[in-house]
Amino acid sequence: MNEYDSDRIKNAIDAEPTDDPKKADIIIVNTCAIREKADQKAFSSLGKYKSIKTNNPDTIVGISGCVAQLYGNKLLKKIPHLDFVLGTRAIPKLPEIISKIERDKRRTVETSYDLEELFDVEPYHKEGRVTAFVSVQQGCNKRCSYCIVPQVRGDEVNRPLNDILKETTNLVNKGVREITFIGQTVNSWKENGYKFGDLIRAAGDIEDLERIRFTTSYPRDITKRMIDAMKDVPQVCHHLHLPVQSGSNTVLSNMKRTYTREWYVDTILRLKDAVPDITISTDIIIGFPGETHQDFEETMSLMKEIEFESSYSFKFSPRPGTVAAEYAEEKTVQADIASARLSELQAFQKDITESKNLSRVGHIEEVLVEGESRNDPDFFSGRTDHNRILNFKGTKDLVGKTVKVKVTEGLLNSLRGELVV
Ligand code: 5AD
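A: This is the predicted complex of the input protein with 5'-deoxyadenosine.
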């Protein structure tokens, strides 16, 4: 989501991106507030630009994203070298803000938005890119007790179907072969009687679009209509990111996740029934207030029962204004206990991911080639249908093509293989 917004920001100001902040006319720190660490990162990166502003007072320094939305005006008071604060829904207003600062030299806070122009700025698209994100929804209507997103991104607003299809088609015409639809709870997307499954079907009709992915799905919004579409539309990749957060029904209920462990497991079975080789990844929060040893054991038993392809796991972080931050005052799980639980879960996941990757050795995978591998220019990199990174020796002309690669090695975070000719 943040990567997508950063690309929209790049496009909104119609400027040439640079990797060297000293050469920049405008520096914008795009931020995330989901956990305290991310929020602190925003302040430390802003700190880095203080000397640039001192040496060149004409450089415009701004902050955007969730931290900007959360603290608004307070940021201008706290950070003297900051010129503007841009809220999560205000990206379309950026050009106006910049020219105002250039003209009047006045510091600005913009955290309001106009509903009609919410999706107006499309992201910067680097020529030759094979994959792209398309936003289908902003904000969130769920009220998970730990989560700051509704506060900083507002209620769910769904983008009209035709606009989504138009942006997708434009990207495909520029050479993109894989689209990832993004939204906080992407599969709750609906518009004028159309539901998420209909969106997938409509995207499946776009000529030359080879792959469709979407993230992040909310478990309770998985419907038969969605599962049927995933089964019927051949371009839909056989991988789903489906955050479960905990394996304990008590914790799930305190998190206000609106489903039980049994319901989640049953949903995975329904998905596997329709798409037998589907791989599932998830998110887990460890040390939610009140999480007992037994609750944690239930999370571990769920990890063992499902064997997720991969998982992102985090220690609970109390966020201002959330219900769970209030709970945390009485029921905090001690930091060392939470750390030990997190390590245990991550060690278990590491073994599972590694053994799943190893089990692909000998298989021939279809890979959409995205570009040179980061570590070795002779190697090229792409992802399998199941979202595993696969590196292999190849040539530049393969970028953008789907090729067959025989897997020779299974590593922790990727696969290696040989091109099948
Ligand atoms: N503390 C820890 N992790 C959190 N997440 C969201 N809010 C919090 C929080 N307060 C995690 C969830 C979510 C992922 C994007 O971040 O697991 O799925």
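The radius of gyration is 22 Å. The first strand starts at residue 26 and ends at 31.
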